Amino acid sequence: MDELTAANPGDNRMSGAASGSADSRRNHDLERIVLDELKWSISGFAKRIREHCAAGGQPRSVSTSTVSRWCAGAQPGPELAAAACYVLTRACKRRVTPESLGWPSEEAGVAEQALHYGDLSHAVRMLQRLWQMDAVPKSAAVRRMPFAATPSSVEALVMLPDTSITGPGQRLVTAADIELLDAHTDLYGRTDARHGGGQFRSVFAAFLAAHAVPLLEGKYNAGRGRLLFGSVADAVLALASMAYDDQLPGLAQRYDLQAMRLAQAIGDRGRLARGCIHQARLAAVRGDGREVLTHARSAVVAAMGAPALVRAYVAVTEARAWAYNGDGPQCLAAVERARVAFVRAGRGSDPRWLAWLDRPELEGQAAWALAMAGLAEEGEQALKVAMGLPPERTRDSVELLITGAELARLRGDGAAWEESLAKARSAAQHLKSRRLARRLADAAAGGPLHDF
């Protein structure tokens, strides 16, 4: 059954006025692109859509008559509209949206569907559409995306890996393809740390729409598929961090959920733990301390048996969650667990996606947790180690200065508080981070830390 709304059949006996009305309903924009610009036949366009849907694991019945009805004014459902626009976008080398063809916007459908923890093909399909939307700079669609009640991560934690990680597509996915994907993720991660997530997220999303989509629709065996899904998950989690930094929790939430589905598919518990950590910080946006702690503890469970560096990461996150809930002793105990795990790291088994977690970063997160828990002396000790952060990590340096201001506030040292804030404002001048700007404003107001 075609996914389109019913169209009234034509009548060969209709009057001239009726013919004019029928002609006014025709989708001239679609006909112009398909027939005039691309020089395709109606049947050729239908065939390309069928091939695209089949490559994505979602075969659809799209015949010549289906497309003919679209040209006559019928409208496809959201799945086929997205597939048709994807095919046209690739062929025209410019973005073709449903709206430009007079079809209903897909935004609301994507916002709703991307909150579902579905099968693997669903996650891939959602990523394609999220990337296409996010590739538009300052997209109104992503800024309108609502921040829903945080989806449960329980299913990701308890479900077994997928039994088949193979791609039946035409294009062979090579090691070079995955290497290019990893290199871009590293590049944009470094750029984000230096300049903030508000500037280059759309460029990265556009790259993924152009490069990662054909890979996900390509041909690969199980071993290559595990590498591909892991690399895509890293890229998606990096995008989620940028969205979070740009105060777009609804977009970050949807990215995180798809990344967790990819991680579950390949049985990667470390990446699942990272997804739970992201869920914890989003729960803090809502101000739900219990949910923050639940997600942080879920990360601890996910990381059991993971490399030591991953366990250090989840332990320091747990410390932050306890601090967020006002439990100083539990916070301090979790900080010590993070330090013990970090000492055991660095023996060749640590994941590349966590290479940024060095000693200064770990102690910086610990200092924040200890400051929020009201443990000023312990926080000062951690902050001294954290100040060895590489200078190119501008945003993290500003975070440390804000933590230093909070520790000065706890000590009652007004001069040190003002000095730290002045340095933070100066260092943040060229950052594009809505989240950091808000943190600076909150710190300047003189109140305690209340974020995550």
Strand content: under 5%
End-to-end C-alpha gap: 48 Å
List the strand order in the largest sheet. 1-2
What is the tally of beta strands? 2
Low-confidence stretches: 1-21
Number of helical elements: 22
Q: Which structural class best describes the helix and strand composition?
A: mainly alpha
Q: Average pLDDT value?
A: 89
Instruction: Give the % helix.
Output: 55-70%
Helix and strand run: HHHHHHHHHEHHEHHHHHHHHHHH
CA radius of gyration: 25 Å
Describe the sheet with the most strands: 2 strands, antiparallel
Could you say which overall geometry the principal axes of the C-alpha atoms support? elongated
Model description:
With 452 residues, the chain is mostly helical. It is built from 22 helices and two strands. It has helices at 16-25, 28-37, 42-55, 64-71, 78-92, 107-113, 120-134, 140-143, 154-158, 175-195, 201-216, 222-245, 249-265, 269-286, 289-302, 308-324, 328-344, 359-372, 376-386, 394-411, 414-427, 434-444, and strands at residues 167-168, 219-220. Strands 1-2 form a two-stranded antiparallel sheet. The longest helix is centred in the middle third of the chain and has 24 residues, at 222-245. It is elongated, with a radius of gyration of 25 Å. The two termini are 48 Å apart.
